[in-house]
Amino acid sequence: MNQVRLSRVLFIGYVTLVLLFLVLPVLIVIPMSFSDSRFLSFPPPGYSLRWYDAFFSSNGWMSAAQTSLIAAVSTALIATPVGVAAAYGLNVSTHWSVRYLKVLLLLPLIVPIIIVAAGVFLSYAMTGLLHSLPGLIMADVMLALPYVITAVAAGLQGFDNSQEMVARSLGMNRFRAFMAVVLPQIKPSVITGAIFAFIQALDETMVALFIAGGQNQTLTVRMFTALRDEIDPTIAAISTLLTATSFAMVMLVAMARQRTTA
Amino acid sequence: MKETTLPNPGLQAMPKDNSARFQRREHHLMLALLMPALLIVTLLLIVPLGWMIAQSFQVNGSFSLEHYERVLTDGVYWRTFGLTFRISFIVTLAALLLGYPLAYAATVLPRRWSLMILALVIVPFWTSVLVRAYAWLILLQRSGVINQTLMGLGLTDAPLALVHNEFGTIIATVHILLPFMVLPLYATMQKIPRDLMLAGASLGGSPMHVFWRVFFPLSLSGVLAGMTLVFVLCLGFYITPELMGGGRTVMASMLVSRNIQLYVEWGAASAVSVVLLLMVVSIFYLVSRLVSMERILGVK
User: Fold this and answer.
1) CB B134 within 8 A of CB A28
2) Which helix (H) or strand (E) holds B157?
């Protein structure tokens, strides 16, 4: 019996260590961002808001943040309806091609991101979309689609299709039946998909490194270039803000899901 | 919408209507709904990918295998692919060793604890890769917390070089990819009936014995899914080795980007891309014969 207890303690201890490994690095950035020193020693010698000030008063950082926010919001607004339509289409059809089309739509996740980036760069270089905001948004939409489609497909699987059939047999056309009967019931998964699209676009770095530039540089691209040169504490402030955004978004997802189970 | 022209709306509402016309209409509707998504993926990914494949077989506009010859014989390319594979193996193994107990704990502990574990896995998952690479740069730098602690404990006299090398790359990559291991593992473990464990115990099996003979074999499909995902993602990693590797840890994806951005060598970049893509696709294909594709990818 004693041996069982010992292995239990060891197991819990190990799991705790792994959780600390996962979480501590994300958390350590937060006190760093409030440091009053240029040097990233821990614990910080004193606390101040100077790095937040450095971020919010820099034109370069602000315009990059603006580009990123516009791209992330537009991506969520475009990828959500496109993804919902695609997920619904895949769900209703029994055609043999469905399997292949599904894989095709998941390709942006399967193909290594560097190859995706090279491909997008190539098609934009030919069409003059390089360094443009619409180009950036379109690439973000493509990368967000697999997330929206998987989230909505999961929602549709839990939905009883005969309800839609009833609405239509009572005379509603397909579109109205979808809006009035299906959509309200899969709303949590649609919200989840939209939020995934938003975070994905906000955090996307690789493709933006190839195609964003000039006036339309994104926050992550600027961070990446800054990180290559030196470990500037301003980045700690930005990291904290980004992490807080992601955290808030994950909370929103959790709340959207909670409402369905309640 | 075309539907309104049908004389009897009730007809189309029949779920199992076998008429060929009905089937065709459903198929057309599906294609129409998929069109925007398919168009975006085709224009931004499929077409350029096709062009790159064509480029990889061409030198000055005529067919040639020169690029592949170079990729397969040049030492630089060999070393890079070798390093990429080695890092991917180490990262996958480390993620399994760290992730399996975590997923197991989330499965067997009371709901309150398991929710907490899952939350602690998901929050870093949705934190930007850049933020996490930055955090590791701070932690592992010469004057960072880890070096300070090691020196404070008297384990080392001079700060260790923990970053801007392969070690730093591996640590940060494991951290970033760990959720991709834990989530499919947890999804699989959750479906294993608890009764089986109880049955094993009631037949006199010790907890260890029951775990290894009953639980572990049933969790193997999750192990396979998680390992595949982590390995394949690691093969294509770029941001982390670029930031953590200090220019010395050159992975396959960096060959692609350097050939494009520094040398404007689309032929070479395309050949490396095709080789990388072939590896990823064949791994996915092989594994998908054992575990369903949705199970591997339906994580996020």
Assistant:
1) no
2) none
pLDDT in tens, B74-103: 888 889 999 999 999 999 999 999 999 999
Chain B, window 186-215: residues with a beta carbon less than 8 angstroms from a chain A beta carbon: 207-208
Inter-residue contact A64 to A222 (CB < 8 Å): yes
Q: At residue B6, does pLDDT exceed 60?
A: no
Selecting from B23, B26, B256 the residue whose C-beta is nearest the C-beta of A118 gives B256
List pLDDT tens digits, range A63-86: 999 999 999 999 999 999 999 999
Taking an 8 Å cut-off on Cβ atoms, the answer to whether B37 and A105 are in contact is: yes
- CA-derived radius of gyration, chain B: 25
Distance in Å, alpha carbon of B54 to nearest chain A alpha carbon: 13
Mean pLDDT computed over every residue of chain A: 89
Classify the complex by whether its ipTM is higher than 0.90, answering yes or no: no
Note the CATH architecture for domain B63-297.
Orthogonal Bundle (1.10)
CA distance B50 to chain A (A): 9
What is the residue extent of each domain of chain B?
Answer: 63-297
The total of other beta-carbon atoms located within 10 Å of residue B53's CB is 14
With an 8 Å Cβ cutoff, are B3 and A11 in contact?
A: no
Cβ separation A243–B122 shorter than 8 A: no
Query: Is residue B185 very low, low, confident or very high in pLDDT (cuts 50, 70, 90)?
Result: very high
CB of A207 within 8 A of CB of A112?
no
Q: Measure CA of the first residue to CA of the last residue in chain A; give whole Å.
A: 41
Per the listing, tokens 């994806």 go with B253
DSSP string, A188-212: HHHHHHHHHHHHHHHH--HHHHHH-
Which residues numbered 144-183 in B keep a CB inside 8 Å of some CB on A? 144-145, 148, 175, 178-179
- Distance of alpha carbon B247 from alpha carbon B241, whole angstroms: 8
CATH number of A59-261: 1.10.3720.10
